[in-house]
Amino acid sequence: MTRLIQARLINEPFDDPGLFLDFRFSRRALLFDLGDLGPLSTREIMRVTDVFVSHAHVDHFIGFDRMLRHLLHRPGPVNITGPVGFIARVEGRLGGYSWNLLDGNSVDFRIVVQEFSGDRVTARAEFRAREAFRRRELDPPDLPPSRVLQEEAFSVEAAEFDHAIPSLSFALQEKISVNVWTPGLTRLRLPVGPWLNEAKRAARQELPDETSIHVATGWEVPLGELREHVFRQGPGQRIAYLVDMAFQPENRRRAVNLARGADQLFIEAGFLNEDAALAHGHRHLTAAEAGIIAREAGVNRAIPFHFSARYFEREQELRDELEKAFANPVATFTPG
Ligand SMILES: [Zn+2]
Ligand SMILES: [Zn+2]
């Protein structure tokens, strides 16, 4: 099945963390983390509408300037989610430059920043190019707990983790996928047309079968009939991105919860088990701990990244430790 959204790591696993989520059928992309964005083309960066930053350690946030440089003359806003205190971080980065060339005639580029803390978005502010990026407070959006973005076709969830500082991880959940089966349309003698978009939307919203779908003037068809003959529905994919967290019970519970049932779990796996003490000192996961979380969450595939440079010659060992813990109900090593 063709996936609406395709995810790929921006860098090699020893370089900065970051995930690029590309929408196949529209000029749009999302970013999880803002590390080195070097491998992304200008065109790809220009597609980014929403960015989700785990925390402000430099390897997760240094790409902000590069993104800003590209988006500055784009009319569409960029929305950025980060942990508590993040609005001030963005304000600080913007404050590092002179903006005297911006005025009321500039392209109306806006940066909307929201902070996620506990289990919800707690603060929001915007910075407009036309106002030389002065901070303007906004009311936080009205979103359900754990949501940082909610749209018709998908949503993004966040959870907060202990990494000595608060660090966020994210999961994108597509709603059900709905495709049209053309022979079914022919059989019901229904025309192709814009009404199908409305019908697909109703299906994605999981409205009841009796829902009446408007085809043309005086021509209605029940949603259930379309479900039976015209639509091919599949589960929407879940893509989880877990970074920079200590392996402790509450983090583990939240990590498993966020990654549960993911088709793809991108997870930090930076340290070998032999260096578990070091990993824990830095409030990071080992590869084996990443594997335990992947197994407990029942994910389909775990993709490790954010490897510590100390293992430059030992990449396969990191991958093996994760795979072993992912596959075995009883791990043969003891996480520290
Ligand atoms: Zn960190
Ligand atoms: Zn990191």
From TrEMBL:
Domain Metallo-beta-lactamase: 231-307
GO MF: 3'-tRNA processing endoribonuclease activity
Annotated signal sequence range: none
InterPro entries reported in the protein's UniProt record: Metallo-B-lactamas, RibonucZ/Hydroxyglut_hydro
Protein name, UniProt field: Ribonuclease Z
Organism ancestry: Bacteria, Pseudomonadati, Pseudomonadota, Alphaproteobacteria, Hyphomicrobiales
